[in-house]
Specification:
By secondary structure, this protein is of the alpha+beta class. It has 13 helices and seven strands. The protein has helices at 2-40, 43-58, 68-95, 117-127, 129-135, 140-151, 156-163, 167-182, 186-212, 215-220, 232-235, 246-253, 301-306; strands at 222-230, 243-244, 260-265, 268-273, 281-288, 291-298, 309-311. β3 (260-265) and β4 (268-273) form a beta hairpin. α3 runs antiparallel to α6 (140-151), α3 crosses α7 and α7 packs across α8 (167-182). Mean pLDDT is 78; it is low at 94-115 and 184-194.
Length: 314
């Protein structure tokens, strides 16, 4: 009998805790939905992100969560970042002809028929279509940093772990997004496009020389003091150390870049290796005055996930 009373008491306590948790979440729901909608530009996806945040909360030890509202905002941010990166990946696959691409970021899908049209219109009006259009031009990390900091006053120290960057870099991401949204960065963006075109010419020359096995042509695009830095995962593929000097670096790449493709990596030119569509290796390139001055080889899966990558045509 006592055991039955204890079991019944535990069940009642569990029900009270669950009811309390539901109340805490519902108090945050509208805020979380607003955050997710500004990040995703899609009401149905925003609702999916909010639902995922509830599932994660319900599975967590809430006794160690000091601020449930802040915790949920962070979780929604992470969920939205994953969704944006997945959307970007599908878009790139579509451009490469490997599969269907996503709808544009701002969507009013037919399957949203279950959503109240008045509710949808009010939420869209509160954000502004123009803002959503510009937000959709940002890369995922920029969008998360801008939305959380500028629209919802989340400190950069709290945003940095979400996007996998330092606080200083996260501040730069938000600043770059802010300039674009305010229209101040128009000329800067034009200059950036010109610079990217110049960098692309160097990369194309590097790839052509490497694929042709032309050692002298390869040397011509390398700075004499170039440094090649592989991470620990890339070291397992060889070479297993940092390499300095044009001659030594050229020997590593001559005849070996057949599977590499040009890409924009964190806003700068780079190369990616993705056999069968699976990202395997990224080379972050630093180009100064038309010469490659450093090559960073990244193969660690955790680091690869943190990069913002946009594949370019070969």
């Amino acid at each position: 009998m006592d055991q039955d009373k204890d079991a019944h008491g535990h069940e009642q306590e569990h029900q009270r805790e669950h009811a309390w948790l539901v109340d805490q979440f519902e108090a945050q729901r509208s805020h979380l939905r607003a955050v997710a909608y500004r990040m995703l530009g899609s009401i149905s996806e925003a609702d999916d992100a909010v639902q995922e945040s509830w599932l994660r909360l319900s599975r967590s030890d809430t006794s160690v969560i000091e601020n449930i509202g802040g915790w949920l905002t962070t979780v929604v941010g992470r969920v939205c970042l994953d969704m944006l990166r997945s959307r970007q990946s599908r878009r790139e696959e579509s451009l490469d002809g490997h599969g269907p691409g996503p709808e544009p970021g701002i969507r009013h899908e037919e399957q949203q028929s279950a959503i109240n049209p008045e509710d949808e219109a009010l939420l869209a009006d509160s954000v502004g279509l123009a803002l959503l259009v510009v937000l959709d031009t940002l890369n995922p990390a920029e969008r998360i940093a801008f939305v959380l900091h500028d629209l919802f006053d989340v400190p950069f120290d709290e945003i940095a772990p979400i996007v996998g960057r330092s606080s200083a870099t996260t501040r730069q991401l938000a600043s770059r997004a802010r300039r674009r949204i305010q229209g101040v960065g128009t000329q800067e963006q034009a200059d950036s496009d010109v610079d990217l075109t110049r960098q692309r010419a160097v990369v194309d020359a590097f790839l052509a020389a490497s694929r042709a096995g032309d050692f002298d042509a390869l040397l011509a695009v390398l700075d004499p003091d170039i440094v090649f830095r592989p991470d620990s995962a890339a070291m397992a593929m060889g070479p297993a150390k940092e390499i300095r000097g044009a001659q030594a670096v050229a020997k590593q790449f001559v005849g070996r870049a057949g599977g590499a493709r040009p890409a924009v990596v964190d806003g700068d030119i780079g190369l990616l290796v993705a056999p069968g569509g699976q990202l395997f290796l990224v080379l972050k390139l630093t180009i100064v005055d038309g010469k490659l001055v450093s090559i960073d080889a990244i193969a660690d899966p955790a680091r690869l996930q943190q990069l913002d990558i946009r594949a370019l045509d070969n």
